[in-house]
């Protein structure tokens, strides 16, 4: 049966050497977040993840969730794990101190979150959404609302949800129809939401739903959407939870994976709700939550791949099958070159994806807390550019990595016994919710590249190219990585420049090339971080650091990425420069 141990050493390397914990620690807001403290936090989180949360993963998959007496029931083991989680204050680790959290960097929150996600993806969605909802309320709610909701949410006594989707409004949120009618200082919400993650459950006394709805007479489309906080139970004057409000789960979905996460159809019948932010600015307010969730879901791609990798590696060491050159007798399958290729594809991608996600998290800390306004703007531009890349690239890649995890197991991967199949099934949702890959790619190309004439992307490419000098310092030892990165940059720069000079030739071009450009950017960003990892590891080896095997493995893994992964950049560029002609050529009947 599948076990999970958080790769704390890998995480610390990414947090310190690549995401720049020391720079984050220098921000006045994070003066307490010293490397020693962060290390201690990661160690403690790793223990909770391994001992308490990970054992619930198979249980959730097998038991699933159901509705009883009109309310959702989740496995009792989930509630027990949640109690330990909240007792340790983990839900508020990266929430601001003003909101009742511990005020640690987002970067640290991400590393810890990766552990919960690896341990049990379905369960981890509950704290993920609660934290996002609390952030949106903190950023956009008025003083009364903040005082009413934030304490219990950050403490974990109440959880939060995100209610966007309706049957006719999926990617197209402008089609949302749920209505909000003014009622004194509050509103009455009526409508139906579908696919609401953790929309109801029996782990806490109350749930705060953040709901996109339209006040009667509001403009059509997204410009007429407002955001409301709707409690499952009405909140009494003393802050306690009272009577049930007019919101209830109608059903939970039967689905491919994340069985332990209740995906609810929710009915709102004149439910009391409080406006969050300004009227008709709901989508902008919801974006606080959605951006948090997009980074979080991108991280899910890393986390589920890591869990799949750990299982595949353990199996490959154990399973004896066939003969390998240079070995006497039958060997464990880790000796076969093709199995090693699969394991290295997993390992190198996971390290690259983790680093890109953490680097983006550190940029978010600088974007919020850097003392200098220009620096804050610069970091924010990087976060904006990389968020769809983290979401889209990491989750798309997780599909092939969890598939490889299964492949390493052979037939034992396809049957449910080993857990490899669960990771594959659980990973599948990550490219769909929180904006499909198509939507991320459109955002990347439309809002993040074309809107600023490619400036943010060119700044990123310049930063990536700057690593060349560090690689050159190490001469031939890092020569392959240097060549791979330079080539990847050339492909990305050329593809972006083709887009910038061609997009207005045909309105279908941006949409037709968006996926390939997103994947190309992810691959090059991953190669960038692997190159930086190789430089950091080489520096450590040159300084005679302990742990030589760890650093040597870093360099070999980065070389594998440069040799075997980076070449796909050429293919993506070619696909992009083919434009939209063929994509758009078939009539509907010809499909
Ligand atoms: C398990 C699960 C949990 C979920 N949790 C939540 C939740 O907590 N809260 C919530 O509000 N929602 C949630 N969702 C809903 C989820 O966010 C939507 O399913 C998703 O946004 C896609 O919407 P859709 O299913 O209507 O697909 P559609 O929008 O119909 O998309 C279908 C296909 O068309 C493509 N497409 C659509 N429009 C465009 C376009 N403009 N350009 C290019 N391609 C396009 C999509 O990429 C996709 O491939 C959840 C869904 C699931 C399955």
Strand content: 5-15%
Low-confidence region ranges: none
The side-by-side strand order for the widest beta sheet comes to: 4-5-11-7-6
> How many beta-strand segments?
11
- Main sheet record: 5 strands, mixed, barrel
Write the layout of secondary structure elements.
Elements: H1 8-18, H2 21-26, H3 35-53, H4 56-63, E1 66-68, E2 71-73, H5 76-87, H6 106-119, H7 121-140, H8 143-155, E3 158-163, E4 179-183, E5 186-197, E6 206-215, E7 225-231, E8 233-235, E9 241-244, E10 247-252, E11 263-276, H9 282-318, H10 337-369, H11 373-408, H12 411-414, H13 420-427, H14 437-450, H15 455-465, H16 467-473, H17 479-502, H18 509-542, H19 548-565, H20 568-577, H21 581-585
Parallel strand pairs: 3-6, 4-6
Antiparallel strand pairs: 1-2, 4-5, 5-11, 6-7, 7-11, 8-9, 10-11
Helix pairs in contact: 1-10, 1-18, 3-6, 6-7, 6-9, 6-10, 7-8, 7-9, 9-10, 9-11, 9-13, 10-11, 10-18, 10-19, 11-13, 11-14, 11-18, 14-18, 15-17, 17-18, 17-19, 17-20, 18-19, 18-20
The site of flavin-adenine dinucleotide has 20 residues, from strand 3, strand 5 and helix 14.
Textual characterization of the structure:
This protein is α+β, with helices and mostly antiparallel strands. It is built from 21 helices and eleven strands. Residues 162-165, 170-171, 195-197, 255, 263, 429, 432-436, 438-439, 442 line the site of flavin-adenine dinucleotide.
């Amino acid at each position: 049966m599948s076990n999970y141990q958080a790769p704390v050493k890998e995480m610390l390397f990414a947090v310190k050497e690549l995401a720049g914990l020391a720079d984050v620690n220098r921000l006045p807001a994070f003066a307490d977040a010293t490397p020693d403290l962060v290390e201690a936090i990661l160690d403690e989180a790793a223990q909770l993840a391994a001992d308490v949360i990970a054992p619930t993963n198979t249980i959730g998959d097998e038991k699933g969730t159901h509705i009883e007496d009109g309310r959702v029931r989740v496995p009792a083991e989930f509630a027990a794990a949640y109690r330990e989680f909240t007792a340790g204050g983990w839900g508020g680790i990266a929430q601001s101190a003003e909101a009742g959290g511990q005020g640690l960097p987002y970067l640290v929150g991400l590393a810890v979150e990766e552990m919960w996600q690896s341990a049990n993806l379905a369960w981890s969605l509950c704290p993920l959404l609660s934290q996002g909802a609390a952030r949106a309320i903190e950023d956009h709610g008025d003083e009364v609302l903040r005082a009413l909701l934030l304490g219990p949410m950050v403490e974990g006594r109440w959880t939060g949800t995100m209610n966007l989707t309706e049957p006719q409004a999926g990617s197209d949120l402008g089609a949302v129809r749920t209505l909000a009618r003014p009622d004194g200082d509050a509103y009455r919400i009526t409508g139906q939401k579908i696919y609401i993650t953790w929309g109801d459950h029996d782990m806490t006394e109350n749930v705060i739903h953040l709901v996109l709805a339209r006040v009667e007479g509001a403009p059509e489309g997204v410009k007429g959407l407002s955001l409301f906080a709707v409690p499952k139970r009405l909140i009494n004057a003393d802050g306690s939870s009272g009577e049930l409000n007019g919101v209830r789960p109608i059903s939970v979905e039967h689905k491919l994976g994340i069985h332990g996460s209740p995906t609810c159809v929710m009915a709102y019948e004149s439910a009391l709700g409080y406006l969050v932010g300004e009227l008709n600015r709901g989508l902008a307010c919801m974006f606080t939550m959605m951006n948090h969730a997009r980074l979080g879901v991108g991280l899910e791609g890393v986390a589920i791949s890591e869990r799949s990798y750990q299982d595949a590696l353990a199996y490959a060491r154990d399973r004896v099958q066939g003969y390998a050159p240079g070995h006497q007798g039958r060997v464990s399958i880790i000796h076969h070159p093709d199995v090693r290729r699969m394991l290295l594809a997993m390992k190198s991608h996971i390290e690259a994806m983790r680093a890109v996600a953490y680097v983006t998290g550190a940029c978010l800390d600088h974007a919020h807390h850097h003392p200098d306004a220009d620096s804050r703007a610069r970091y924010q531009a990087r976060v904006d550019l990389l968020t769809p890349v983290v979401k889209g690239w990491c989750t798309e890649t997780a599909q092939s990595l969890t598939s490889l995890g299964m492949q390493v197991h052979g037939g034992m991967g396809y049957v449910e016994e080993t857990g490899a199949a669960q990771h594959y099934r659980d990973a599948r949702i990550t490219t769909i919710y929180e904006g499909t890959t198509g939507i991320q790619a459109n955002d990347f190309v439309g809002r993040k590249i074309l809107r600023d004439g490619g400036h943010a992307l060119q700044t990123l490419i310049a930063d990536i190219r700057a690593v060349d000098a560090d690689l050159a310092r190490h001469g031939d030892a890092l020569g392959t990585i240097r060549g791979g990165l330079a080539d990847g940059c050339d492909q990305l720069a050329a593809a972006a420049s083709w887009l910038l000079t061609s997009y207005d030739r045909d309105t279908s071009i941006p949409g037709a090339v968006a996926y390939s450009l997103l994947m190309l950017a992810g691959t090059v960003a991953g190669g960038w971080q692997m190159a930086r990892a190789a430089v950091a590891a080489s520096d450590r080896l040159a300084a005679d650091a302990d742990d030589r095997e760890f650093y040597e493995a870093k360099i070999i893994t980065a070389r594998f990425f440069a040799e075997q992964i980076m070449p796909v950049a050429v293919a993506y560029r070619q696909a992009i420069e083919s434009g939209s002609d063929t994509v758009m050529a078939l009539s509907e009947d010809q499909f």
